[in-house]
């Protein structure tokens, strides 16, 4: 994380020739790499990279709302004191500030963060989630969110790959399974995977091998 941040920091400084303030925001409780990030050779310090570290679970949500720092409202559920009344007020302010599309995107992320947050009780989460459903059509937003759709598609692809490999391992040789592992890792088209799944069930080994070879990426 710190090495990656150092790359971003150096790239931005080189591009704009301005001071860069780098920050790592940790939304959920985890081990934290504290600054500075040091590069040393023997007893010589070659580089000390100082960055800010913000742990959301250590922050208080109430001052954020009192000061109307709306840009941080999406992160509120991960903070201390994020109760239903406070989040309801924050949602109303967001609805007044943002366009419908901007609001929808932020509500989805707020919901994701709330589900993983450990700073809210299950009952408080249930109350807020009910408001999201009734007032902001949360279920519909989740169903149509590009990120969610992408994850669903990715999960379906992984399931199909595993199913094909399991079927092939039961019916055919290890060499065919090894070929399938190589080929399937490059196939992201669901329809193509369904076709291979059907072949794995009903076709002979040579037919499956021929089809897999056709899917090999060009060198």
Q: Low-confidence runs (pLDDT<50, min 5 residues)?
A: none
Task: Kindly report the average pLDDT value.
Answer: 91
Give the H and E element order: HEEEEHHHHHHHHH
Percent in helix = 55-70%
Number of domains: 3
Question: What Rg is obtained from the alpha carbons, in whole angstroms?
Answer: 25 Å
- Secondary-structure-based class equals mainly alpha
Largest β sheet strand count, sense and barrel closure: 2 strands, parallel
Largest sheet, spatial ordering of strands: 1-4
Salient structural properties:
two-stranded parallel ribbon, 10 helices, 219 residues, two-stranded antiparallel ribbon, single chain, mainly alpha
Protein topology:
Blueprint lengths: L1 H15 L6 E4 L10 E5 L2 E6 L2 E4 L5 H6 L17 H14 L2 H17 L5 H15 L1 H7 L1 H26 L2 H11 L5 H13 L2 H10 L5
Parallel strand pairs: 1-4
Antiparallel strand pairs: 2-3
Short description:
With 219 residues, the chain is mainly alpha-helical.
Tell me what the structure shows:
This protein is mainly alpha-helical. It folds into three domains: 2-56, no CATH class; 59-144, no CATH class; 147-214. 61% of the residues lie in helices and 9% in strands. It has ten helices and four strands; from the N terminus they run αββββααααααααα. The strands form two sheets. It has a two-stranded parallel sheet. Strand 2 (37-41) and strand 3 form a beta hairpin. 18% of the residues are buried.
């Amino acid at each position: 994380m710190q090495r990656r941040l150092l790359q971003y920091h150096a790239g931005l400084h080189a591009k704009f020739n301005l001071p860069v303030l780098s920050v790592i925001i940790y939304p959920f409780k985890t081990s934290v790499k504290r600054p500075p990030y040091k590069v040393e050779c023997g007893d010589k310090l070659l580089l000390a990279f100082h960055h800010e570290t913000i742990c959301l679970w250590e922050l208080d949500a109430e001052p954020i709302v009192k000061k109307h720092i709306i840009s941080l409202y999406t992160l509120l559920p991960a903070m201390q004191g994020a109760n239903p009344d406070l989040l309801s007020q924050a949602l109303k302010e967001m609805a007044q500030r943002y366009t419908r599309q901007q609001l929808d995107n932020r509500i989805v992320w707020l919901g994701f963060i709330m589900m993983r947050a450990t700073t809210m009780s299950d009952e408080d989460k249930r109350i807020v989630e009910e408001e999201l459903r009734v007032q902001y059509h949360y279920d519909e937003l989740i169903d149509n969110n590009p990120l969610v759709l992408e994850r669903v598609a990715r999960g379906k692809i992984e399931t199909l790959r595993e199913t094909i490999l399991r079927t092939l391992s039961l019916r055919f040789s290890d060499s065919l399974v090894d070929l399938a592992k190589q080929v399937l890792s490059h196939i992201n088209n669901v329809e193509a995977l369904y076709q291979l799944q059907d072949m794995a069930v009903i076709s002979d080994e040579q037919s499956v091998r021929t089809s897999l070879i056709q899917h090999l990426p060009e060198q």
